[in-house]
# Entry
Amino acid sequence: MKYLLIICFALSSWTANAVIETYEFSSPELEARYQTLVQELRCPKCQNQNIADSNAPISEDLRRRLYQELEAGMSDEDIVAGMVLRYGEFVRYKPARSGVTLWLWWAPWILLLGGLTLWLGVVLRSRKARVSLDSKKDQIEKLLKDHP
# Structure
């Protein structure tokens, strides 16, 4: 019974023995760039994890590709541009502010400004109508007093 319990614990922790990737970088600067980029790039499969935290096979491939491209001397911008070209703007946690993303950044403010303008117009029109109604009421009361 004791051995069965040990075997059960060993098998249940099998996934905890996952391989941790370690890469030998030619310089500490490349390693720092690598750490920055793996935090900034999103896993295409997991969707809400960066490639550093994801255990998906595609993230492993992206980390390996990132390592190879850094060692090949590519710039961060070129690497990210290649990832965006292949996986779309979604792969970036901080998408570039252009095109559709500009609309996404500015649309709430534009709609809020439009709503406030509409509300201000309604309030001013209501006041104007109330003032006009009050002046007509005064005219009617004056006419009624003049003609018994």
User: Anything to note?
Assistant: Confidence is low (pLDDT under 50) at residues 14-19. Residues 98-148 form one domain. The chain has two domains: 18-91, 98-148. The CA atoms of residues 42 and 80 lie 11 Å apart.
